[in-house]
Each structure stands twice: as structure tokens, then as C-alpha cells.
Amino acid sequence: MRVVFDTCVLVPSFLRAALLAAADVAQVEAIVSPRILEEWVRASKTPLQSLEAKAAIARFRRQYVTAIRPDPTSLAQFWLPDLNDIHILALAVTQHVDVIVTHNKKDFPQDELRSYGIDRMDPDAFLRLLLKRQGPGIAAAVQPIMAEVRAAHPDLSVSDIWRKAWLPQFGRLIEKL
What is the pTM of this model? Predict the structure, then answer.
């Protein structure tokens, strides 16, 4: 399976770590572009967040060298409600991906994506799909990530962490394993 990760799912560190760890286990080919990485930095609200984003992107570039594909050169033939997201659709089409993983349902209409043979999934649904296919391997991949967050935030329950990461259903399934 080949997926494009929208910027909005790469920005939150816990969500990004869970998605990438699960994708690695499931041998999912993650694809991003330089423009997606630039948006990641621009999503920062403070100078410290900008520095953290740049450091995370540098780690991403080292770890996922082959995931970074050139920005599409032509966007003219594509349409989405938000013109600023067309580059993601163009990347998905030119890279022959199966899924765009995003929280942004309204700007990635399923009917439009399906006309290109692409599905849209939110991160919770995507991780549930990988869990269904890979089971214990996915659970083992995300356990250290959860342990690190639990150590940093002992006041939060595991279900609260999954919920705050926008992964409530996946979290419930993982906790049952």
C-alpha cells in the first residue's frame, strides 16, 4: 500500500510517531513532498514550534529518504475545494498512491479522490486498517511510543492520550490486545 500523509497528520508528534511506526511494520510506502514538509514548518505557531518542526523534519529526511518525492510540476488538471490542497492530490495521483491520510474530510471529497482510484482515510481509520492486517506487530510498534507519552504525562489515562491524538477507536482496539 502506498499513502500520502497530509501535513495535518505529520505535525502532532505522537500521531506522526504512531503513523510512521505502524506504516513501517505494515510495509506501507509513505510518500510526502518538499511542499508538505514546508507546510509542516509553516504550521508552527511559535518560534520554538518552528525549531521543533525543523528538527523533526531533519530526522524524517534521514529516516525516510525514499519517502520524499518531487513536488508535482502541473496542478492545472486537478480540482479540490481548497486550492491549497491540490498539490497533495497531484502528488497522490503522480505517485500512484492508494490512500491520502488526512483529518481534512471537507477539502478531500471522497468522490473526487475515487475518480483517481484514491481513498481518503483519517488516521484513526488508517491505523485500524493496519491493525486488522498486522495485529500484534502494530501493537508492539506503538507501545513504546505510548510508554514515552505516559512517562511524560502520568496524569493522563491511556484512553485520554489516544483521544487527544484523535485515535480513540484505534486506542480502544490496541488496549484490548
Answer: 0.94
